[in-house]
Design goal:
Rossmann fold, globular, 7-stranded mixed β-sheet, alpha/beta, 2 domains, Quinone Oxidoreductase, Chain A, domain 1
Length: 374
């Protein structure tokens, strides 16, 4: 079938993107679902820094590629071997398909699925196939999803069925921002009630972490960012303290206010500078968690003696160490009960042909989560 999609021809376009237009809205061919695959009509797709890092070349991917990995939609057709989804079901897309058979999957860690990671790096679906084509050649898939398009053919292993009452634009956020941010707090760090927490970087993932910390009953939640506007939103969402990361005294201010630092610090900005700040505001015996994705060649140096003498822990978190089938329905239920006001993260709704403008806003730090609505 012929569909409209936002195709990235090459990485590294100059800003502003509204002028250089790295994402071109084009007509492409989409194959029907193969074995174990599903055709989904995309209803909403969020703009995330993981998309932006492909556009600017910080996370190299094969091109041409249809971007978009945080989305929700409606099942239109199921391929052979799919017997647990039906036409009309509402689904959220997850950006790492899990095979269910490799060692990480067998250990209950589907976020680290080895075939899923290999497929994502190659720009294919879990099966190794490419279902997108143009002018006789293949177009690559972004993280097994490619949701900046009217329709997507994806692996069944990339989909979570959700309640039909959940609005699509809100449902989309659960596939990346919420799974990653809330999961980092609950699964990776295992923050318990009464803990002290800091979140460095208040994008969609960072603010989701803040919501998660508030939901589990953290007694102190420190929000850190360069944007005073985002710090204001953080206060509305439950932050007890806010600090502008641009302040020369930011670290000292946080350590003084928290009696030597926080028990859990989360780096969500994807930068070495933010990671350094997060590590320095973590107290003795505390844990620093990073879910940010800096360029692959960036490195973080830490004083090894402190790691030992202060019994520090530094942990990475990918998709919030989540088991999507288990966690996504739980987070949706918390949202319905008012414990995770995910809808407050919505900065605006866009049309597909406004996607480049949306990434300008994201690049400039003027938006938390923008959603393309089809």
């Amino acid at each position: 079938m012929k569909i409209k999609a936002a195709v990235l021809e090459k990485m590294g376009a100059a800003t502003p993107y509204e002028k250089s237009k790295p994402l071109a809205i084009q007509e492409v061919e989409l194959d029907p679902p193969g074995h174990g695959e599903v055709l989904v009509k995309v209803k909403a797709a969020g703009l995330c820094h993981s998309d932006l890092s492909v556009i600017d070349g910080n996370r190299p991917r094969p091109t041409p590629m249809v971007l978009g990995h945080e989305a929700a939609g409606v099942v239109q057709e199921v391929g052979p071997g799919v017997d647990d989804l039906a036409v009309g079901d509402h689904v959220v897309m997850v950006f790492v398909p899990s095979c269910g058979h490799c060692l990480p999957c067998s250990e209950g860690r589907p976020a680290l699925c080895e075939p899923g990671a290999a497929a994502n790096g190659a720009g294919t679906l879990l099966s190794g196939a490419r279902r997108l084509h143009r002018n006789g050649g293949d177009v690559h898939h972004h993280l097994g999803v490619s949701a900046f398009a009217e329709y997507a053919t994806v692996s069944r292993r990339s989909l979570i069925k959700v309640d039909r009452e959940l609005p699509f634009d809100e449902a989309a956020l659960f596939g990346c921002a919420v799974l990653t941010g809330v999961g980092a707090v609950i699964n990776t760090a295992r923050v318990c009630a009464g803990s002290s927490v800091a979140v460095v970087g208040l994008g969609g993932v960072g603010l989701s972490s803040l919501l998660g910390a508030v939901a589990v009953g953290a007694r102190r939640v420190v929000a850190v960012d360069l944007s005073d506007e985002k710090l204001g939103l953080a206060r509305q969402l439950g932050a007890t303290d806010t600090v502008n990361a641009g302040s020369a005294d930011a670290v000292e201010e946080i350590r003084a206010a928290t009696g030597g630092g926080v028990e859990f610090a989360f780096e969500m900005a994807g930068s070495v500078r933010a990671m350094d700040l997060a590590y320095r505001i973590t107290r003795r015996g505390g844990t620093t968690v990073t879910a940010g994705l800096p360029p692959p060649n960036h490195t973080f140096a830490l004083p090894q003696v402190n790691l030992v003498a202060e019994e520090r822990t530094v942990k990475g978190s990918y998709i919030g160490t989540c088991v999507p089938n288990r966690d996504l329905p739980r987070y949706i239920e918390l949202y319905r009960r008012g414990k995770l006001p995910v809808d407050r993260l919505m900065s605006g709704r866009l049309k597909l042909d406004e996607v480049n403008l949306g990434f300008d806003r994201l690049h400039e730090g003027k938006a938390v989560r923008q959603v393309i609505v089809f």
